Amino acid sequence: MLGSGAAPAIEDLSAHLDDADEDRWVRVQCADALARAGEVVAAIGFLAELATDAGQPFPIRLQAVRSLAMCGPAAVTELAALSAAASDPNEYVAAAAAHAVAVVDGTYAPAP
Q1: Cα dist. 98→8, 10, 71, 79, 84 in Å?
Q2: Those residues with Cβ within 8 angstroms of residue 53's Cβ, 6 or more apart along the chain or in another chain
Q3: Per residue in 33-67, is it b (16+ CB within 10 Å) or e — as a string?
Q4: What pTM, to 2 d.p., does this model score?
Q5: What pLDDT score does 103 carry?
Q6: Cα separation of 11 and 16, whole Å?
Q7: Three-state helix/strand/coil letters over the chain
Q8: Domain ranges of the chain
Q9: Is 1.10.3720 the CATH classification of the domain at 3-104?
Q10: What is the pLDDT of residue 6?
């Protein structure tokens, strides 16, 4: 987590995230950075939207899913989107989403 050290960048990150004309790669990275800075609520809705948008290239969907997993239980409101992404036609997105569901719902247990 970037934590309080990212406070000076939050306003700019939020502005880029909210700018629909901004490049999608920039927006997904801004959402990830906001989540890492502790601004999870500002980021998770957008990330869930990207994770399930079949019109997005798979690397964008994959980054969105990975960012939601990093949010852990704070992204519990987006479990339905993550569950849907677990059926993504791209095997990497589907596997990452299945992992994210377990992380977010608290059932993930690392192998001993």
Answers
A1: 34, 30, 15, 10, 9
A2: 61
A3: bbbbbbbbebbbebbbebbbeeebeeebbbbbbbb
A4: 0.90
A5: 96
A6: 9
A7: CCHHHHHHHHHHHHHHHHCCCCCHHHHHHHHHHHHHCCCHHHHHHHHHHHHCCCCCCHHHHHHHHHHHHHHHHHHHHHHHHHHHHCCCCCHHHHHHHHHHHHHHHCCCCCCC
A8: 3-104
A9: no
A10: 75
CA distance 21 to 102: 34
Length of the chain, please?
Answer: 112
Residue 61 near residue 51, CB atoms below 8 Å: yes
Per-residue confidence in pLDDT tens, the chain, 112 aa: 466 677 788 999 999 889 988 899 999 999 999 998 889 998 999 999 999 999 999 999 999 999 999 999 999 999 999 999 999 999 999 999 999 999 999 999 888 8
